[in-house]
Hints:
Layout: E1 2-10, E2 13-19, E3 23-28, H1 34-49, H2 70-73, E4 84-90, E5 95-103, E6 108-113, E7 130-133, E8 143-145, H3 148-153, H4 164-171, H5 191-199, E9 206-213, E10 218-225, E11 231-232, H6 238-252, E12 258-262, H7 270-285, E13 289-293, H8 297-308, E14 317-327, E15 330-336, H9 356-365
Parallel strand pairs: 3-13, 3-14, 7-12, 12-13
Antiparallel strand pairs: 1-2, 1-4, 4-5, 5-6, 8-10, 9-10, 10-11, 14-15
Amino acid sequence: MIRSLRLINFKPFENQFLEFRPLTLLSGLNSTGKSSVLQSLLLLRQSYQQGLLPNIGLALNGELVRIGTAQDALFEGAGKEDPIGFDLVWENGFKGIWRFNYDREVDVLNLASSPVAQEIYKSSLFSNKFHYLHAERMGPRPFNEMSDYQVRRLGQIGTMGEYTAHFLGIYRDKDIPNGNLSHPKAKSWNLSNQVEAWIGEVSPGTRLNITPKPDVDLMSFQYSYGDSNPYRATNVGFGISYTLPIIVAVLASEPGTLILIENPEAHLHPKGQAKMGELLAFAASCGVQVVIETHSDHVLNGIRLAVHSGKLNPKDVQLHYLQRQEKDGLAFTEVISPHIDRNGRIDQWPDGFFDEWDKSLEALLEPAGE
């Protein structure tokens, strides 16, 4: 499990230390660097998958993330000789320190130094015990892709959730590895029943109808409600399609898995967002490390409720609020890290940290102008 991350000369960060816990929540206004934190981890994984680590350099563009050019990755205020650096510390004490020099002539990032302990590359960040779900996930489709390599061999559902239907089709009858994540209304512990029970928090009574079409490498995906006829996914809406990959990834993950999720609240009504926060909190309490980027106060409140109910230790939650600052005409990101207590209360609320409801309410309480 990752315990801390230091970013050096990477995008909006000159030298930023970030503590990680089983559940780490990144928040802040748009374009303050939340995605950049996730991208630093994705770049290391992507570079390893492409064979550039541990010996060559950084793969800036691939299936997980596309940064663009090396100059796009470099902090604007970095000097000509300043390297990009990623420092990771795991709970077992292992430390990974990577430095990449910017070759301006060919616009690449070459490896200057890397960790001595090769066991680092067996951690969840580099192994199959990993899931990443992009903010732009697959919307409703009548058919979904199949990939035996991604699903059977790697145990992945795709960065956009494109292999979720195939994953469910293969592992639907397998019991979930974390019994504490079992929904009280589920018919059994198997993945299919658990997914239907949790998706019911978003859309009550939802049933999943998945039919493989192996001759064309597609999965037919339909939904039904109770005893109703099945509906095409395109006639159901975005909320379920966007939520399903998250629920599947969480329920199928063993302890020690690392899950990175962008905007888990997308297309969900407030109750569904709060329940999503609770589910992610429950996963963190079961040994799955979850890192989320969110703009949703409902997701935050779902996490706070999990802490308040005793389902998640407040020491297992790390909040980071990112805000853009300017110094000598140069923009950079500052990180403020509020703490949550046993009652689910937060010790500080910096300006912009999930406070828009209070600001709007205060304005509405003022007498209306003539």
